[in-house]
Amino acid sequence: DLPDVIELPRHLVDLTLSKDLGKHWNLTFRVRDLLNSPVRRSYEFNSGYDLDFDIFRWGTTYALSVSYNI
Fold this sequence. Notes:
Elements: E1 4-7, E2 15-21, E3 25-32, E4 39-44, E5 50-56, E6 61-68
Antiparallel strand pairs: 1-4, 2-3, 3-6, 4-5
């Protein structure tokens, strides 16, 4: 019988900064997963024993956008 694989909780911080530039323009800067905490998934056995399935990092993503509102 295969054990379940669960993803353990992690710290996650996203940041969004937005600035209106005049009446119609808007500038937005976004950072996703600022801390780049590792994602850890583990096998969960019925006996209560846990074993790492995998550990990886998604990486931090940056985005800059300009929008025009009518």
